[in-house]
Amino acid sequence: MALSDLERDFVMHFGEMGSRWGIARTVGQIYAVLFLSERPLCADALVQALGVSRSNVSMGLKELESWNLVRRKHVAGDRREYFETPEDIWQIVRTLIAERKKREIDPTLSTLRELELRTPAEGDAHAHARIAALREHIEGMMRFYEELDRLETKSLVRLMKMGRSISHLATAPGRILPLRNKGA
Q: Name one Pfam family in it (predicted).
């Protein structure tokens, strides 16, 4: 399977970005090839497209499956395993956010809660208060995320497209949202 120049540039960039997001470059590239493909691909096609080892592709596919970002697809008449990404971009985004929350935010909140339960030693009052404030802030963001996650995709897209027009809630006379002082 040969990649076009457009596809190759996307795949290379996605691999580079993946390494910045905390996943291996090859895992990002595997995902990018699957994302762009019109049909499910087997590991052999990914090896050919990326020029990496079969074991590297197998490990990358396992990681992507653990993130719920790819799924196995049976192809009639073929015993090989094929893989694909969801077609719905919003499903992909929601999955990424949910997985990052589960892997990064939830453990952090657990640790913050445990630390906050400790009786602060002498001299730890400031640190204890900062930990409590951080926990409260993250929990508030998670409540906001959960509210957004409950929205149907159509409503979420409409809300996102409103963008700056929502700012009238903060700028109109009698506004309900105060503006942030950027100098503070």
A: MarR_2
Record the pTM: 0.79
Angstrom distance (rounded) from CA 81 to CA 151: 34
Please state the φ and ψ torsions of residue 173, each to the nearest 5 degrees. Answer: -55, 140
Which CATH code, of 2.40.30.10, 3.90.1150.10, 3.40.50.2300, 1.10.10.10, is assigned to 5-84?
A: 1.10.10.10
pLDDT block averages, 10 residues each, the chain of length 184: 94 92 92 97 97 97 95 92 95 92 96 95 95 97 93 89 73 62 63
